[in-house]
UniProtKB/TrEMBL annotation:
UniProt family annotation: Belongs to the dTDP-4-dehydrorhamnose reductase family.
Any one of the GO CC terms: cytosol
The organism of origin for this protein: Halomonas sp. H10-59
The protein's name in its UniProt record: dTDP-4-dehydrorhamnose reductase
Required cofactor(s): Mg(2+)
Pathway listed: Carbohydrate biosynthesis; dTDP-L-rhamnose biosynthesis
Length: 298
């Protein structure tokens, strides 16, 4: 199976590259652009085109949201014209007001924010004009490297002694980019074998947690690992924010359908964060050892 993913530096693109490299049944083509034309699709002839999510669309300039929406629609038109399935990953922030209970796939987001409404309109076009599509709604994605890599940004800030603001009254499901990559390949492999299960799916991990608790856990785990390596670093602090005083916001996606249709189990974010922190600390220790060895040789 050949897959084409856009936005080469995105953390999901890098995660898909790692996952495809360890498999023998998937070829991945990565394009640095954010859109593709029909001619390129005909030449590459991928089994699907994947578009990574615009992370935190509520916090970026409106022009960036419009640009992303227009790029997705251009890709959708190209996929429709050539007959290539489209996979669009979408940030859970489209559910601006959240919900008291986990949000099912059939619930179409209805945000008040103009930029978020623009992304919803793009989803409406995809559902209406491109039958072979997967709209995959994900929670806040985290990874160690690449753009939109939340965890990597947290670690850099904490190591530098900076302050990390995080909401205490927003409950969400942090989502590992590696887990999303593994799930997408599994879903598309089944589609290639005739599953014909197109539509919208939620893929957002398990164990809802406040943004503040998530960041605090990362800080604690990082400190423990660094101490175990003999490093005494004054890590930055976590600043508690509260924006929803009257009603805490719960933005939790119900991921039951992706399990029922494709057999995809959500990965606990605690295990994924722990694994990534182990990887990060090993790399840091290796760099320190190399520096020490080079110093002795000099």
């Amino acid at each position: 199976m050949k897959l084409l993913i856009l936005d080469a530096g995105h953390c999901l693109s890098l995660a898909l590259a790692r996952e495809s490299n360890r498999r023998g049944d998937t070829e991945l083509v990565i394009d640095p652009a954010t859109r593709v034309d029909p001619e390129a699709l005909r030449t590459l002839a991928p089994d699907a085109l994947i578009i990574p999510p615009l992370s935190r669309p509520f916090s970026v300039p409106p022009a960036a949201v419009v640009e992303h929406a227009e790029a997705v629609e251009a890709c959708m038109e190209a996929c429709r014209d050539v007959g290539i399935p489209l996979v669009w990953c979408v940030c859970d922030q489209l559910y601006e007001d959240g919900h008291d209970s986990p949000i099912d796939e059939h619930v179409i987001p209805a945000p008040r924010d103009e930029g978020l409404r623009r992304l919803v309109a793009t989803g409406d076009r995809i559902r209406a004009e491109c039958p072979e599509h997967l709209i995959v709604r994900v929670g806040p994605m985290f990874a160690l490297e690449g753009s939109h890599a939340w965890l990597g940004e947290l670690l850099d800030t904490l190591i530098d002694g900076g302050t990390v603001p995080a909401e205490t009254d927003v409950t969400l499901c942090p989502t590992s980019a590696d887990a999303v990559a593994m799930a997408l390949i599994g879903m598309l492999q089944q589609q290639a074998c005739g599953a014909n299960a197109w539509g919208s799916y939620h893929l957002a991990g398990v164990e809802p947690v406040s943004a503040y608790t998530f960041v605090c856990m990362v800080r604690t785990q990082l400190g423990t690992r660094l101490e175990g390596q003999g490093e005494n670093i004054a890590l930055g602090e976590v600043k508690a924010l509260s924006h929803h005083h009257d009603q805490p916001l719960r933005r939790v996606l119900n991921c039951r359908r992706v399990l029922e249709v494709f057999g995809v189990h959500q990965k606990p974010w605690r295990l994924e964060v722990g694994r990534m922190l182990d990887t990060w600390c090993r790399a840091r220790e290796d760099v320190a050892c190399q520096a020490t060895s080079q110093g002795k040789d000099a």
